[in-house]
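Encode chain A's predicted structure.
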Amino acid sequence: MASIIKDLLYTAFAPAERASSPKVDEQVSLFSGDNKTRQIFDFFPDFAVVLNRQRQVVHANSPLLQFLKLPSIDSIKGLRPGEMLNCLHSSDNPGGCGTTEFCRVCGAANAIMNSMENKTREMQDCEITTADGNAVNFRVWASPMVQNGIDFTVFVLRDIADEKYRSALERIFLHDLMNTASGLYGVHLMLKDNHSLFPDYANSLAGLSLQLLEEIENQRDLLSAEKGNLIVKPEKFSSLGLLKDVMELYRFHDLGEDRIIKISSDAEKVKFTSDQTLVFRVVSNMVKNALEASKAGETILLDCFEDSEKVVFKVHNSEVIPDDVGLRIFNRGFSTKGGGRGWGTYSIKLLTEKYLHGKCGFSSSHEDGTVFYAEYPLEFG
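Encoded structure for chain A:
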């Protein structure tokens, strides 16, 4: 019995203890019976809940209930925000939302805890992946509230997915595509002034054109995948051939400048059936991520091999991912490099696990550097 209680109370971040069901019902009645307070909350256009000291829901406004497709608070009272939103990690520990290592880097959990501890109004952004694989982005606010002499926390959530998309598209079109287009134009000017240079720059021209098309198609496929209407087209192809195509893509990429991309001498030519375009997209994003992380002169090593009826792709670089970054690295829109980034690693997971029946992940240490991997069944289906 003692070990069971210990497991229930274990936490890697916020306290696991909860108020009893009768206590939660008593707190719910403080708000359900207060028409004025209820009307004010329902007037909010954003999603809003009231949390007790144990971070449990004791009141929810109409916009949130409509979003969750619920007629009343009954099915979410006593839950914590992550449990209410079906967060992927809310059931990792017996203590639930707020008690896992992932909660330490969650904007929602941190806003709530900081507000409770400091009696201040807090605002943070958070990225949540739901248990069914969907991703949501919220801007959240937490603020102290007193009702009938009891301390509560008002927790407000605003969906900022559109803002994240706009930021990403602005970066893609104003930075990434502009850089590639500028490179194309530069080659064009050189050829215009001196036609004899064409044989020397033909490969550069082809590489930059391929890069431009790849960046546009990458975003098209990501948007289709998010909407759930991406069509998978399985075909048989070679893992080693795909690695060579990815390496060729980055041969003329500005990210590849002063960095070395190599294919392992042990890489195997594995024939398998999947969507070649989407697997190419995944592996190229792993390489792009490695290039962005690496310093000038460092080597990015690509590998592929067969293992237990699966084909495995690996991309290694020498840098180390900090623990707090690693916990969020597959979240939609999360990046340490500023607005508009953070979609490459997210798309790796989305395409691999939702569309290609595969699995992806990474390992990182000071001894071995960082390795991202993606594995797929030899036969799709």
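The longest strand covers residues 135-147.
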